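[job 4417] fold queue: 2 targets
>>> target A
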Amino acid sequence: MQNFLKILRWSVGLLFIFSGLIKANDPLGLSYKMQEFFDVWGVTFLADYTLGFALVMNTLEIVAGIALIVQYPYKQTLWLLLGLIVFFSFLTGYALFSGKIKTCGCFGDCIPLTPKTSFIKDIILLLAILVLLFNLKKNKSKTNTYLGVFVLLLTTIGTGYGQYYVLSHLPIIDCLPYKVGNDIVEKMKQPVGAIPDSVSIQMEFVKDGKTYYFDANQFPDNFDTTYVYKNRKEVVIRKGNGLVPAIIDFELNTLSGIDTTKDLFATPIPYVLVFAGKIDATIPWENLLHQLHEKYKLVYIITADKSGAQQFLPQENILIGDITMIKTAARVWPTMFIMNGASIMQKTSYIDYLAK
């Protein structure tokens, strides 16, 4: 029994450490996932605090995992882990049974899990933690108090510094579709074997106080102007297999609204894309652009902040993109992509680029 409890304790601890480390590699990714949950729940006022929540959550997972392995403080750690796993089970259960969240972000973007897989994982972990709690007296800690405090303090400091580093210098391991070596055009193609959802356009009309829904291609014979149009929506008739392109929203437009994406990818020489969702006036843009132009002839700033870009940047360098796409492409703003056609050759945060 002792060996079984030891294996169980190490398995739970290592899984929490692994989960925390993956998300600590990209805390902004977890922050964006939290915003997705808050948007669905209608508590958008919490969106400004998601990064702080993510930093604390990642640190808690890693420190609690270490604490479980060293068994200090053992009882308190098990109760903390029980609280965490109950919370995680609620999130993954909501994602599974509501269908409103596609992935829970349990292992970040590096290991995307379906809501079903995530929920099953959390239930297994919940049972494992309960077993450890019920057998608390059979697995007493022998860890020296001072050693335990030192290990947990060192873990907390190390996790905090690691997250501070990636927030300034990009994730150490890039698991996003915009990582170095990827071809954006290739990532926009449908995966082999992909079966899209089959949908029907339903039109909503009101007549004599009653609501009617008609298929867009099939209206009743008595349809006339007494039917007042209200809305239209897509109804999924048959679900596809869930395979979708890794990149689905990459489109760049000039300030006048012209889509220049294809022309940009056809550029015959290396060029630079500078991603910045919002234009921060405190960034040394003049110095940054000057250094880039010393080496590259073509430099474009990709942003969703049209007014800010027009106020602080040269107009000929500005291209407008979707904010979600920019958040996915670049965790630090601004981030430089050295491009060769549609291929990403280098990816560097502005801090590292200016430090060269």
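>>> target B
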Amino acid sequence: MTVRKLPLGLLLLAALTAAPAVQAADAPTLNAANTAWMLTASVLVLFMTLPGLALFYGGLVRTKNVLSVLMQCFAITAMVSLVWVAFAYSLAFGDGGPFNAWLGGLAKSFMAGIGVTTLKGTIPETVFAMFQMTFAIITPALVVGGFAERMKFSAMLLFSFLWLMLVYVPVCHWVWGDGWLQKLGVLDFAGGIVVHVNAGVAALVAALMLGKRKGFPETAMPPHNLTMTVAGAGMLWVGWFGFNAGSALAADGTAGMTMLVTHIGAAAGAFVWMLCEWVRFGKPSVLGIATGVIAGLGTITPASGFVGPMGALAIGGAAGLVCFFATNYMKRTLHVDDSLDVFPVHGVGGAMGTTLTGVFVAAALGGVGYAEGMGMGQQVLTQLIGVAVTAVWSGALTFAILKVVDALLGVRVNVEEETEGLDTTQHNETGYNL
């Protein structure tokens, strides 16, 4: 059979009309389902700070300081949102050119070049920026728990701004913004390093530098409203599904598994903490089970997109056990006044969860499997490097920032103001008029 030759003009016309189709197929396109899920996840993560974390922390402090904690969470939310839009997002997720291993550039400052049709993968970049903003908000808000009831409001604002720019933004870029830790192979699906180790170490340094609250540990300082704390813990538990499953950036099987293992980790952490307290002190407490669920959630976070249900059960159970003893050891033996137990819950939990990710990511244990050429030993070592680098960076920079803020404003209220309470002395208000 003879094939008749086509005229040259028809061949050129066919080539020209086919080229756009090929290019269109390769170009990223918006996925409505992914976009809808990421809009929802962004709302859930913001809900974790306001009202979730605000109520959780607010109930844990004494009556005279409840408004100060709520105010700090609100003010951090507003301040970080503005700074994120101005230049923090660009530095965290922009292209830093020859310095991209360490920090992004400023090309996307004030959301330059980001419009209605601009995509990040299959979702609008506006949605991606908003989702990441909610992470940037909750991380410095977590640090508040380390120095609660004794830092000046003005000092807290300046500290949170400097900490966001000098600590959070670089670490975020290293791990999630195509920085050097990401290229090294560190696995942190939703913030074990970026959020929990980072915030936990900063809270510990702040607690040590500011010193103990007046009367600690001789004077009992029980939570003033456990009902508020449990309500906040419940909101955090629900919001955490957006925190972890949203980090898949898609409405797919990874997001589904992430949501499942997040819940398993939370439940295991809560139940094991309750059992530990029951055995150790004779009765399980509401405060204990609420703290246990936060420990389980924080510890499963880095592993959530990489492990299976059995891995989540092991990681969550380890969180309930280890974080329980870490909290009691710091409070009762070392007498470190980390007011709301940020380091033993978030710092210890985040470090442990990040390390155990290197174990339970193994396909034989139900995980997604290691990257090509990497085994369990190498992955665990890589995870430990990520934890150690972040702990040193956060600790050293937090120390330096607090020194600067103290020289400029003074970080701690005086004895009379602390005795009267921060609600009155810093905001001229009271939480209750009974």
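[job 4417] complete. Note on B: The longest helix spans residues 376-408.
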